[in-house]
Specification:
The complex is a heterodimer of chains A (295) and B (370).
Chain A: H1 4-35, H2 42-60, H3 68-85, H4 95-118, E1 133-136, E2 139-142, H5 143-165, H6 167-177, H7 179-184, H8 189-214, H9 222-236, H10 241-258, H11 264-281, H12 290-293
Helix pairs in contact in A: 1-5, 1-6, 1-8, 1-9, 1-10, 2-4, 2-8, 2-9, 3-8, 5-6, 5-8, 6-8, 9-10, 9-11, 10-11
Chain B: H1 2-33, H2 37-63, H3 70-86, H4 92-114, H5 120-139, H6 141-144, E1 150-151, H7 161-188, H8 190-200, H9 202-207, H10 212-238, E2 240-241, H11 243-246, H12 249-262, H13 269-288, H14 293-308, H15 313-325, H16 337-351
Antiparallel strand pairs in B: 1-2
Helix pairs in contact in B: 2-7, 2-10, 2-12, 2-13, 3-4, 3-5, 3-10, 4-10, 7-8, 7-10, 8-10, 12-13, 12-14
The chains are: A mainly alpha (295), B mainly alpha (370).
């Protein structure tokens, strides 16, 4: 039986990890909401952002956090472009299936180009504060993990405020809830859907920068992220942002606690166990509403 | 009219039969024509791809459910065969069929979870399956050999390497024929009709009484079994299994790419796609070695196929030929809605003169038909 302080440490780390999962799952939920698209390339963009942060740091020595100023707008534009130029051109009847393949092919291209440009070598950012850590009721937590969590939490809060309290957020939620009805009250749903996609991709930029602070990155790392993220959105219920956030926290915490007893790889299977259990018991997910029923 | 339309159909059938016989002749004589064992191994690799993507097409082509995780079934088939031979000491080909049966049994709970919901969740489960298997087979090193790999003993220890390749070429060819035959039979059966109804409109199929869930599950299991056979045969041929390659998401993606490129609604679609993509893969491996760029090419090709010809090459080409020859048929009768209504009105007026033709009773309520 591990000691109480070790358990507490795991809980803290689990919450920190869950925060990052929650942000990324929120992005996936946005894509699904506006377009009914399962975006396989989400985690590839995540790794791309991490590589951009690493590259900027290596070349110029700037703090990786500063790359956010470039990557967030860049990814937003890329998201809008991807929605307008690629996804809207697919046939509506087979959109869900074909969009999976299309985003999958985007993920392959990103992985291949990253491998070509930076080779398959594992990379890591070394910062002045990389090894610093804080004592926190007996748990030692690396400062970079706290920064990553803070970044994810701030981005999620910003997303929440934007969705709840701005006219754009209202239009976006209306588009998610019922596209035709939203169009009938005068919302330009195509434009809003594009922006929604851009916002989703912007979460990958934030997440990738946070990830680059304390993780070793390599081109095929995105496969290790997409599985857990997919599991989270299914468990939470496709299309439900609070569901995704709760599922992300719960599963992140479980994974972290399981690592006390099992190896890292076995602990990761918790996501897939949860995925299969959810589909067998409650296929629409635990927080999914009407939307999730048919997908 | 009938005489005109029967003649092209007749010659079409003859042409198709001729092409089929020519294809079989080429396939059978390939080992004796191949200039070196290397070409033979390329042929085997292409046949392996063809069996895999035809097996994938049982689910993808009939029901329209796209699985990115069929690589997991192939890998499981290969590993199960290898483990049954090394640990269970079964004869190689008994192990092959036992492993296919085991994978089919495993596919039942997977399909049960994956097919309860439509579309998106199915794809997610299929991807998750590959990732789980990769985790399990890498971590459980004491049983599976882990990243060090698993060596499968050769089924014919006394043979030379080239004879070994030749035998496996014909084994893969036989398996391909079996898979194509099964697909052809399902395609013409009532079962296949139900599956295709699911592809076109699952709600309507269900409301017309098609047992959609059972049908999907059955075809999923059949597909998994064929995929496992192909994977197991590959394991026996190649003799060395590594979880990274056996449970790669990429191998599942290649199956999808090949089937889509050729045309998922056609018997020979996946085979054609496998010849094109498989040859391209082997060629680029020979010319450029293993660079990450093959991911870029595969991704771009998949993207182009999905964007511009989601029905594949075969429909695109036959459509073009039909347009040039002017033999194109439309499945939709060219009748306007107004003509149809008149026709129906006439018929109803004949049968039941006391009812108004639009189906309304004089008191304005809609008539309910029993």
């Amino acid at each position: 039986m591990p000691s109480a302080s070790l358990v507490f440490q795991s809980i803290v780390l689990g919450v920190l990890l869950g925060g990052l999962y929650a942000l990324l799952a929120a992005g996936l939920t946005l894509y699904f909401g506006v377009m009914r698209v399962v975006m396989i390339a989400h985690s590839a963009f995540l790794i791309l952002a991490a590589y951009l942060a690493w590259y900027a740091h290596r070349e110029t020595g700037v703090d990786p956090l500063l790359t956010l100023l470039v990557t967030v707008p860049l990814f937003f534009v890329a998201g809008v472009a991807m929605q307008r130029l690629l996804l809207t051109r697919l046939r509506p009847a087979t959109l869900t299936m074909m969009s999976v393949l299309l985003t999958f092919s985007v993920a392959l291209v990103i992985e291949g180009l990253l491998g070509y440009a930076f080779s398959g070598t594992q990379r890591r950012i070394r910062l002045g504060y990389s090894s610093a850590s804080l004592e926190f009721f007996g748990a030692r937590v690396a400062v970079v993990k706290l920064i990553a969590f803070g970044l994810a939490a701030a981005a999620l809060l910003g997303l929440y405020l934007l969705m709840r309290h701005s006219r754009f957020g209202q239009a976006l939620r209306a588009t998610i809830q019922h596209r035709e009805a939203a169009a009938l009250v005068g919302i330009d749903t195509d434009r809003i859907a594009g922006y929604g996609f851009g916002l989703g991709l912007a979460t990958a930029a934030v997440g990738g920068t946070a990830l680059s602070l304390d993780t070793t990155i390599y081109p095929s790392l995105h496969w290790h992220w997409i599985g857990p993220l997919m599991a989270i959105i299914v468990v939470g219920g496709l299309g439900s942002v609070p569901g995704a956030a709760i599922a992300a926290m719960t599963l992140g915490l479980t994974q972290s606690l399981l690592q006390l007893e099992l190896s890292t790889t076995w602990a990761q299977t918790v996501f897939y166990v949860a995925l299969f259990a959810t589909l067998a018991v409650r296929p629409q997910g635990f927080f999914g509403g009407r939307l999730a029923q048919r997908f | 009219m009938p005489r005109d339309s029967e003649r092209p159909r007749h010659t079409g059938r003859l042409l198709r039969l001729g092409a089929l016989l020519a294809g079989i002749a080429v396939a059978l004589s390939f080992p004796s024509m191949a200039p070196s064992p290397y070409e033979l191994t390329v042929g085997i690799a292409i046949l392996n791809f063809a069996v895999l993507s035809t097996s994938w097409n049982f689910v993808g082509g009939f029901t329209g459910y796209i699985s990115l995780g069929h690589g997991a079934f192939a890998g499981l088939g290969a590993y199960a065969t290898g483990l049954l031979v090394t640990k269970g000491e079964l004869p190689s080909f008994v192990a092959l069929f036992v492993s296919a049966a085991l994978v089919a049994v495993l596919a039942i709970p997977v399909g049960y979870a994956a097919l309860r919901v439509r579309g998106a969740s199915f794809v997610i489960v299929s991807i998750a399956l590959v990732l789980i298997m990769l985790l399990v087979f890498q971590s459980w090193a004491s049983f599976t050999g882990g990243s060090r790999g698993l060596v499968v003993p050769r089924p014919f220890p006394g043979k030379l390497r080239s004879e070994h390749h030749e035998i496996f070429y014909f084994l893969f060819l036989g398996l391909l024929a079996l898979a194509l035959l099964a697909w052809w039979i399902i395609d013409r059966s009532r079962f296949g009709m139900g599956l295709k109804a699911i592809r076109e409109d699952e709600d309507k199929a269900q409301s017309l009484g098609t047992p959609t869930y059972t049908y999907k599950l059955v075809v999923f299991v059949v597909s998994a079994a064929f995929t496992a056979l192909a994977g197991g045969l590959y394991g026996l041929w190649f003799g060395d299994l590594d979880p990274v390659f056996q449970f790669s998401i990429l191998s599942g993606a290649y199956m999808v790419l090949m089937a889509l490129l050729g045309g998922v609604r056609h018997l020979y679609g996946p085979l054609l796609g496998a010849v094109v993509v498989g040859y391209g893969l082997e060629y680029s491996k020979l010319e450029y070695g293993d660079t990450p760029l093959h991911l870029v090419f595969a991704g771009l090709l998949l993207g182009v196929v999905v964007m511009f010809m989601p029905d594949g090459v075969i429909p695109a080409v036959t459509g073009l030929v039909a347009r040039v020859l002017g033999t194109g048929e439309t499945s939709i009768r060219e009748v306007t809605a107004a003509e149809l209504r008149d026709e129906r009105d006439e018929r109803e007026a004949d049968v039941r003169p006391d009812h108004r033709p639009d189906g309304k009773r004089p008191d304005g309520k809609r008539e309910v038909r029993q």
